Amino acid sequence: MALRTAGSVLVVFLWSVAVVLGQDGWSVTYTPQSICTLKGSTVELTCSYTYPRGTVTSTFWFTKNDAEGNPVSLSDDPDYKARVTYHKDNKNDCTLRITDLRESDAATYKFRFITDQTGGRFTGNPGVTLSVTDLQVQVTPYSVVSAWKTLTCATCVLTGDPTYIWYKNGQIVTDNTSPYSVYPDAADSYSCALKANEDLHSPAVCVQGQDCSRVTYTKRRICVLKGSTVDISCTYVGYDTVTSSLWFSPKRSASWTNKLTPEDLTRDPGYAGRVEYAGRESGTYKGPFTLRISDLREEDSAEYRFTFKTYNFEWGHSFPGTTLSVTGNTTLYDTTVYHIELQEKKNEPSC
């Protein structure tokens, strides 16, 4: 099993013990038969097939049948149409790729092929079972006699035994395993991500009680037009009374000051007159807290993070934030009624 990224998208390639389903020269090989992967990622269902004679005239994957009991090709299913591709580089390769995975994609996937021979059609049963999950920290007691807690990162065991990254109070910790054992402190929160795919991370979770330090971003990705105004928001909790807070961009902080300390965007000359903060200014809980950037420029495309300080604590700087894309390109969407009457035209940013 290997992991790699395409842009910011996790792509899962899977190799394991092959399962051959068929008879008399007809077979479909799924590798493996069960997969658990992340919402928002890309998965490949590895598959190959054989047949005794003739020429293959049609191949497709499906998860359901129509009202007449006929399999519905994923390529014709509106829920999948723009998100599925088949490998056709090699003969008898039926590998399926699904992008931008959704929780509704959790299903059993089967491959079917048809030849020019009489009765020459075959479906590989029982297929591949796909589970789709969000990353979510689950906290359980380490043992009945220990105060330690065990943290796991996903609701199902992700295929391929990936490497995890753990964040404690917004800062990366060194242990990259799941499950992960910690000694709980009421102030501590933990989040997790997959290595090399940190933008798909879990919300921060308290390991003891309900009140702890944490930051939750309203949106992880935003695409807007050049010249417009954008609001980037988060909610946050400081275990102690919050004394100060700010928004920063790791890209800007690194190039502008060459320091590891985050720099307040309101003090960056590149944002002068274009940045303002909105949010409550006192107390332990603050949120939503909003960064507003006006007159957007393409060079404003970056990741934006929020941090805060209390009398005894500072939220770490390595927890992923919100990624902003600013573009001058637009996509024209046409919405029609019965495919005859044009109802609406509008321009949307194309990122």
Summarize the helices and strands and which ones pair or pack.
Layout: E1 2-6, E2 9-13, E3 19-23, E4 26-31, E5 34-38, E6 42-50, E7 56-65, E8 71-73, E9 84-86, E10 96-98, E11 107-115, E12 121-123, E13 128-133, E14 135-141, E15 149-154, E16 164-168, E17 171-173, E18 180-182, E19 189-194, E20 197-201, E21 205-206, E22 214-217, E23 221-225, E24 230-237, E25 242-248, H1 250-257, E26 275-278, E27 285-293, E28 302-310, E29 322-327, E30 330-337, E31 341-349
Parallel strand pairs: 2-6, 5-13, 23-29
Antiparallel strand pairs: 1-2, 3-4, 4-6, 6-10, 7-8, 7-11, 9-10, 11-12, 11-13, 14-15, 15-18, 16-17, 16-19, 19-20, 19-21, 22-24, 24-27, 25-28, 26-27, 28-29, 30-31
N→C terminal distance? 31 Å
CATH architecture designation of the largest domain: Sandwich
Low-confidence stretches: 1-22, 333-345
Largest sheet, in brief, is: 7 strands, mixed
| Coarse shape | flat
Specify the CATH class of the largest domain: Mainly Beta
Number of domains: 3
Q: Summarize model confidence as the mean pLDDT.
A: 81
CATH topology category name of the largest domain: Immunoglobulin-like
The DSSP helix count reads: 1
- Strand count: 31
Radius of gyration: 25 Å
The SS-based structural class is mainly beta
The quaternary structure here is: single chain
What percentage of amino acids are in beta strands? over 45%
Signal peptide: 1-22
Protein name: Ig-like domain-containing protein
Domain Ig-like: 126-208
Organism: Salmo trutta
